[in-house]
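Readers of this paper often ask what the protein records in our data store actually look like. The remainder of this section carries one protein's record, kept here as part of the documentation.

:::
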Amino acid sequence: MARKKIQVNITFSGQTYYPTKATLGKGEALQKFFAGENPIVKVWTDSEVFMGTNSESTHLDWVSLKLVSNGAYIFEHSLSDGANYTNAFKTFSKFDSLKFEISNNSIKVYGSITINMSVQAEVYNDTVNSGLLLFQEFGFRLKNNSDIFVFSKYGSEWEDEERDLQNFREGNSKNYTINQPIIESK
C-alpha cells in the first residue's frame, strides 16, 4: 500500500494527563518518575540509542494519535475509523516550546510539537480533512530505566474513555473531545 506524508502540529495549553492502568502497575519505578526531573523532548540519533545515551535522561519516547468518527462525518475509507498512529521521537520536529510539568501524580503539558508522519494513501483525505485526528497518549522513558510510562487524558479510567468514545462516535456527546489539544494537519 502506498503511503503519503503529512505534518501534524499539536498545541497544548495546560492539559493534564494521567498514568494508564498498566503504568500504575509499575509501582516504585512510577514513583521515581513522579519524583524525578521533568521529561525532555529530543530526537535521538541511532548512535545515541545504540550507545544508551538516551537512557541518561527522562524523555518523551512517542506520541499516539487516533482518527475517530463523530457520527456526522462520513469517512471516505473503512480503514479510517479507529486508525492509530504511534509516532516515535524520530518523527518529532519543532518541539522547543513543548514543556512537561509533573504534578500530583499527573503531567501538565504546554507548548507545541510538530510530527512528520506517513499514513496509508487510502486514509490520507480523512486524516487531513476530517478534523477528527485526536491526541491519544504520551509514552515516556524514565532515566536509567527501559520501561515505558504511558499517560492519557483518562489514565486508568479506561471504562470512562470507552463510554465517552462510544457516545462521541454515535454523535451523542462531545465529552471525549473536551480539553483536547489543538491538532492541525497538512
Summary: DSSP finds five helices and nine strands in the chain. The chain has a mean pLDDT of 90. Helices lie at 21-24, 27-35, 46-51, 124-129, 158-169.
